[in-house]
Amino acid sequence: MIYEFLESESALRQGDIFRNIPFAELSLSQIPIMDGDEPGITTWDDLVAAGESRPITALIAIQPVYAMVLTQDCDAARGRHICLAQVDQFLDVRGIRNAAPQTPKKWQSLLTSHMRENLRYFYLPADSSFGFNERMAVDLRVIIRVPRNDLMGLLHHRLGRLNQVAYEHFRENLAQFFRRYPYNEWYPLNKEEAEAYAEASPESVDLYSWQK
């Protein structure tokens, strides 16, 4: 498919795909901590207000995930930290697990429109020889930062990288995602058009003063 296998000594590059990257989520409103030998629950605001100068030991859940390197090649070669984006199953990333296409025609329609319209995801096709038994997607909203030296010790978990055609697309997708201008697409509509837009939208739409 669109992947390349690598020698273990191959340099770390943008577009490299890893398995078993540690991913942790921390709630700022409920942080399990160990204060001495006593466990407890606190909030980040309370910790900041307490002005603690000593390190706080927090208990957080960590799970292994697939992830793709976002850091550019020059920084990946010598930077202190590497940023990766989580890779997850495509249907789950898109939230359509229960409405998956059932024919090749519907799949191609979904995937081609997805790649045109959804810059926050980058599609990765299934390839069992590479380690992807399902269609996958890079979720550019979920960023994981790890020390470069530590990641270099995990090169045996690197599956490979995108081929040149896919990498060029990914690089442009990544750039467009982070420099895109967010705007409310309904702002130039007149009153009647805006009302029709709001009625058809599955989400709440705040109309502008000139549309009321």
Question: How would you describe this structure to a colleague?
Answer:
There is one protein chain. By secondary structure, this protein is an alpha+beta fold. The protein contains 7 helices and 10 strands. The strands form 2 sheets. The protein has a 7-stranded antiparallel beta sheet. Strands 4-3-5 form a 3-stranded antiparallel beta sheet. Strand 3 (31-35) and strand 4 form a beta hairpin. The longest helix is centred in the C-terminal third of the chain and has 16 residues, at 164-179. The chain is globular. The N and C termini lie far apart (52 Å).
Q: Which strands sit side by side, in order, in the main sheet?
A: 1-10-2-6-7-9-8
Content-based structural category:
alpha+beta
Q: Total number of β-strand segments?
A: 10
Question: What's the rounded overall pLDDT mean?
Answer: 90
Contiguous low-pLDDT stretches (5 residues minimum) are none
Largest β-sheet summary: 7 strands, antiparallel
Please write the string of helix (H) and strand (E) elements.
Answer: EEEEHEEHEHHEEHEHH
> How many H/I helical runs?
7
**Whole-Å distance between the termini?**
52 Å
Helix percent band: 25-40%
Beta-strand content bin:
25-35%
Shape: globular
Instruction: Determine Rg (CA atoms, Å).
Output: 22 Å
